[in-house]
Amino acid sequence: MPDVRLSSPQGKWILLTTVLGSSMALLDSTVVNVALPRIGRDLDADLAALQWTVNAYMVTLAGLILLGGALGDRFGRRKVFVVGVLWFAAASLLCGLAPNAGVLIASRALQGVGGALLTPGSLALIQASVHPDDRGRAVGLWSGFGGIGAAVGPFVGGWLVDGPGWRWVFLLNVPLALLCAPVAVRHVPESVGERAEGRFDVLGAALGAVALALVTYALIEAGEGSLVVAVAAVAGLAAAVAFVLVEKRRPGPMMPLDIFASRQFTAVNVVTLCVYAAFGGFFFLAALQLQVVVGWSALAAGTALLPTTALMLLLSARSGELGDRIGPRIPLTVGPLLCAAGMLLMLRVGPGASYATEVLPALMVLGFGMVTLVAPLTATVLASVDTARAGLASGINNAAARAAGLVAVAALPLLAGMGPEAYRLPDAFDDAFRRAMTLCAGVLVVGAAIAWATVRRPAPDCRHPECHTHGSVAVPPLEAETEPRGERGKGPGTETPWPPGAEPR
């Protein structure tokens, strides 16, 4: 039984450790987009290289995040978390010292591996160490401080890019890690999963990551029309099929496919794919639009994007309460439609755009749409499966959102007609950005239609989210299992092992 009280010195150290660890990954996911134009100029990189700078990280993170939680259960959550923090820092150092785009992209892929180890571990350390009476408050503080980290990310990133340089966007992680790792070793108790046994689904994780990487490559390089691109596309689809077959037949799979027997779970994950594909494409291109076309500095562009995260931090808890009262169907329909309206308002943002009259209104509408949908989305995911599988369901939903974002970053420039040098040509980029925003709005409308047609009110005794405050615009919040093992029911599905990162000590 976890016995560390949050008010104790050790409880505060645990909270500090987990906030520092999760903030590293959150900061990195929000600051890099702001730095892309300067990275491209300094390393003489084309648009494809900038896409890979974002997606190399997302490929390994999305493909390995579920495996990372399982490794923590087996070998010790603190140990794997510390390894993830140090790995992330070492890869960040390589990113900061990269002499060319190729080295930067490879280092970003290594960074994603570290992120897959530390991201599920940060929440799991709280679940495994903090007393149950304090756990809800600890998770609330963890998610709140993490949201603040995500909020300040674009501002800090812009300041670093305009000041000491884009390399410090990555080098900033090194001192954070050097603070976080020793504190974790000294003050955080070790814990393992009581049911962490059997083989790891390394094959499933590898196939998932390979499928994402090959499909991403094919989409980014599709303009070349070469045989290599065609082979990569076919191989990526084959790897995806193999992943499904392996997960279907393997005992103890990373992603048990029977969880999709719940129609509600399947439907809300399709909505997630639509919503976070649009978000991933928007935040990748918006940071470029504000710098390349509008002509703002990196700091001004990063600061301009703060309203969306600020609204998420301030109103996500109230949005969750509203969803509990009226059910998720209306928020999951209205939210994407508001986001679509916000992206269409971005069509007014061009050369010489005014922040107060053109940029801010679009971001406010987009932010209110995100507030409306994210908390009910997470609640519906958790409510659509047995309580014993809630943590696993959240992990799958989180990975799906990351995969949707990386596919959007790969595909959207192709669909919008952006050439390799588009970000160097303001007029050409502006035209393509407008087409891209229209496409993103269309995907959001499709998501809203699916939500209206498929989402239903969950049972009143279902599992509810523990993370009430959320500030990340890139992914939905992670949730872990919190029900004591002895209190789990005996109905169908309760024999399922604890989800990765969620087994109590």
TrEMBL record:
Its main location: membrane. Signal peptide: none annotated. Keywords: Antibiotic resistance, Cell membrane, Membrane, Transmembrane, Transmembrane helix, Transport. One of its GO terms (biological process) is response to antibiotic. It is a multi-pass membrane protein. GO terms for molecular function: transmembrane transporter activity. Residues 464-505 are annotated as: Disordered. It holds the Pfam family MFS_1. It comes from the Bacteria. PROSITE patterns: MFS. GO terms for cellular component: plasma membrane. Residues 14-459 form the Major facilitator superfamily (MFS) profile domain. It is found in: Cell membrane. The keyword Cell membrane applies. The keyword Membrane applies. InterPro entries: EmrB-like (IPR004638), MFS (IPR011701), MFS_dom (IPR020846), MFS_trans_sf (IPR036259). The chain crosses the membrane at residues 12-36, 48-68, 80-99, 105-126, 138-160, 166-188, 200-220, 226-246, 267-288, 294-317, 329-347, 359-383, 395-416, 436-455. NCBIfam families: efflux_EmrB. PANTHER family: EXPORT PROTEIN (PTHR42718:SF42), MAJOR FACILITATOR SUPERFAMILY MULTIDRUG TRANSPORTER MFSC (PTHR42718). This is EmrB/QacA subfamily drug resistance transporter.
